[in-house]
Amino acid sequence: MDDWGPFGINEGKWLVFSIGNPVEGHGYALPRNIDDLHSQRIAHLISCRTGARYVAHIPWATDNFTSIAKDWAPKSIPVEELVGNIINFIRFHIDIYKKMDLPTSKVLIYSGHGGNNPLVRYEKEILDALNLEKLIISTTEGIAEQHVDRIIEELDELSKEIVENKENPTKIRRTLIQILLSNAHAGHFEHSLGAALGVLDEKKLNVMNNELERDFEAALNKWPPLGGLGGFLLAGRVYTEALGTRDNDKFGLWKCMKTLRRLDHGRVMVFKELGELIINLLVEHYSEMILNG
């Protein structure tokens, strides 16, 4: 049976695990587990494209702002604790596959939650603890920069496809670029991703958008994770000490909030096609890494 199916010698060579965040606020219209759903979808698609085995979903999460993150992500744990949990979790599954005499030496951990980015600093520790030949831990940083030419090219085509009411495709293209350049927590892009995943609540989006347009800051106070954790930014004090200030926007969160406020009178703009484009890009990016590894 070695030559059956589309994957050939690549079938089962890699084990894929997903990780997101089980409970994290993104506003009224998105589920709290959207980062889990995102990572599970991508991991499954990578498996279907490469023949890697999608094994399991890692249920924990950390955050860049652990000291205050529990206000919007109450299940976050310190990264050191998460690393220990991941090692034990993956070891449990590796042992199962070893008993079946199946490959276990190459692992991809795909993360759908930006707060898990610190995991890449522990890549060698995890690799050594599990005695792996290769380990890839995804990050939300740097992917767009690596594929900027392709993204611009695809945005040109996408803007032509989604033009409505004779709106100028150049204007749509400019809007899409602004959305990507201001991508941060629970902004236009993450809602577009939710639409692509099929988990955006349109009725609640409409309610939220009406309130954002009527009184932007009051709406952010009601749903503080929106627009780059905008409600927390407006609250100031301990939050801006960790998240950054208007003058020192070290994580791009103020830019995300500004873009939310400016693009459409404060309303969240949703482009399902943009979410689909980025999903496809991520799947292709990590699939190539696996197939070349």
Can you describe what's shown?
Strands 2-1-3-4 form a four-stranded parallel beta sheet, with helices on both faces. It has 293 residues and is an alpha/beta fold. The chain folds into two domains: 149 residues, Rossmann fold, CATH 3.40.50.10310; 133 residues, no CATH class. The chain has 14 helices and four strands. The model has no long low-confidence stretch (mean pLDDT 94). The chain starts with 14 loop residues before the first strand and ends with a helix. The protein is globular. Helix 1 crosses helix 14 and helix 8 crosses helix 14. 54% of the residues lie in helices and 7% in strands.
At a glance:
By secondary structure, the chain is of the alpha/beta class. Helix content is 54%, strand content 7%.
Give me some keywords for this one.
7% strand, 4 strands, 293 residues, alpha/beta, single chain, 54% helix, four-stranded parallel beta sheet, Rossmann fold, 2 domains
List the secondary-structure elements in sequence, H or E: EHEHHEHEHHHHHHHHHH
What is the level 1 CATH name of the largest domain? Alpha Beta
Number of E-state strands: 4
CATH architecture of the largest domain: 3-Layer(aba) Sandwich
Percent in strands: 5-15%
- Per the CATH scheme, the topology name of the largest domain is Rossmann fold
